[in-house]
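Below sits the subject:

***
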Amino acid sequence: MRAWRVAIAGATGAVGTEMVKTLERRNFPVASLKLLASARSVGKKIRFKGEEIAVEELTHEAFKGVELVLSSTSGALSKEFTPSAVKAGAIVVDNTSAYRMEPDVPLVVPEVNPEDVKWHKGIIANPNCSTIIAAVPLWPLHKAFGIRRLIACTYQAVSGAGAWGIYELAEQTRAVLNGEPAVPKKFPHPIAFNVFSHNSKVAPNGFNEEENKMMNETRKIFHEEGIRISATCVRVPVFRAHSEALHVEFGEVVSVEAARAVLARAPGVKLVDEPGRNYFPMPIEATERDEVLVGRVRIDPALDNGLALFISGDQLLKGAALNAVQIAELLTG
């Protein structure tokens, strides 16, 4: 297996730092690693395989000689710089929403649609974190029983907003415990000891951006435009790992036992389902794990042929960095 000349755009962010760790942990064949970020991060050093690598400025010329870019910038920056990376000859695995719904850009979860990487034209999109975490356990159930309808309710950790989300929750928690008010700085509302609708813009259809991403991206990844999906996305005071309640209607009657059997052998899934102990997926146990934890598998009486599930997954890993590296591994063959 040949080694690749790799660059990480947005290397100092929450997802970028996880990308560095994941490349090393999975022993991805890296010939050289270039770390790119904004001008204010230039000179900062990040450790990779025993070497201290200095961060360079993200510019249009920075991709010279690079074969693979793992990008976790903002959508606007991705739109600006990704064409330059492709023009320089690199394949870009993009973690933003900039290209996800472009018809000529594959949107890939390796456990679901790995074959889609074959038709890339220089850009492969990494899906939204909540979409990835749901797709991993839903896909094997869809293959086995055929999903017709999905209602998803998310409980999303603050680190999904970036490193500043972690800082804001910590600062507000300290304030409240000291008898002081929780003053929001970047989040629109207090997050300590509170929950609120996901902090993304509400679209004309009444769903916010996060919810629309889940609905549209899931259909594209599954290549199933007919699945009826509704999502409600909520920010909760958890540092890391998203959780989701999934209510699924199938094309045939599905028993709890049959669903558990499918999930128990599904790649990327860890079945955590012990009703006798009231022990089910929790974000604290999903943190820093590659697998999506799945449990609370039960008949949903509100749906025809319905099942209800509860899942937790580390959105910085499987929901972002790990999924991107797994896409890169597909490219290596």
About this structure: The first strand starts at residue 4 and ends at 9. Residues 90 and 182 are 45 Å apart (CA to CA). The mean pLDDT is 97.
